[in-house]
């Protein structure tokens, strides 16, 4: 199982950099932090509307000051949110440095990810 996971992980960067890669308003395609953010959404949040909504809820709580910071440990990454930024650490290859994006950039990416996830779910319902 771990072999398959690591094999998929090796293939991921080329997938992200492809023409059909996940993008969002403000996305910078050659920015290592934005690449890491895409990897996080693809591998840890996947196409779960529930998990994406949970992220949006946590962002809202942090932006309102109701929550100082929050952390989520996932399949491949550890996400740490604060009022200023999102830090995404690679749990598979710890030699990779953590990548940081502004909280607002992270927020926009998650909103777009949720919209695309919900559109995909709708198209699957229509196709079936």
Labels describing this entry:
128 residues, alpha+beta, disordered N terminus
Write the layout of secondary structure elements.
Blueprint: H1 2-16, H2 32-45, H3 49-64, E1 69-73, E2 77-82, E3 85-90, E4 99-102, H4 103-127
Antiparallel strand pairs: 1-2, 2-3, 3-4
Helix pairs in contact: 3-4
Description:
The chain is an alpha+beta fold and 128 residues long. 55% of the residues lie in helices and 16% in strands. The protein is built from 4 helices and 4 strands, in the order H-H-H-E-E-E-E-H. The chain has a 4-stranded antiparallel sheet with strand order 1-2-3-4. The longest helix has 25 residues, at 103-127. The protein is globular. The N and C termini lie far apart (30 Å). The model is unreliable at 1-19 (pLDDT under 50).
TL;DR of this structure?
By secondary structure, the chain is an alpha+beta fold. It has 4 helices and 4 strands, in the order H-H-H-E-E-E-E-H. Helix 3 packs antiparallel against helix 4.
Distance between the amino and carboxyl termini: 30 Å
Largest sheet: 4 strands, antiparallel
Shape: globular
Element-level helix/strand string: HHHEEEEH
> So what's the oligomer here?
single chain
What is the alpha-carbon Rg in Å?
15 Å
Strand content: 15-25%
Mean pLDDT: 85
Structural class: alpha+beta
């Amino acid at each position: 199982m771990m072999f398959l996971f690591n094999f998929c992980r090796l293939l991921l960067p080329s997938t992200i950099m492809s023409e059909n890669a996940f993008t969002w308003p403000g996305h910078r395609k050659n920015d290592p932090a934005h690449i890491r953010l895409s990897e996080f959404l693809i591998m840890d949040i996947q196409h779960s509307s529930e998990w994406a909504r949970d992220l949006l809820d946590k962002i809202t709580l942090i932006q309102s000051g109701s929550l100082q910071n929050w952390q989520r440990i996932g399949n491949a990454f550890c996400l740490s949110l604060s009022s200023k930024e999102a830090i995404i650490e690679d749990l598979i290859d710890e030699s990779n440095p953590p990548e940081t994006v502004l909280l607002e950039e992270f927020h926009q990416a998650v909103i777009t990810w949720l919209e695309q996830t919900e559109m995909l779910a709708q198209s699957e319902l229509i196709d079936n």
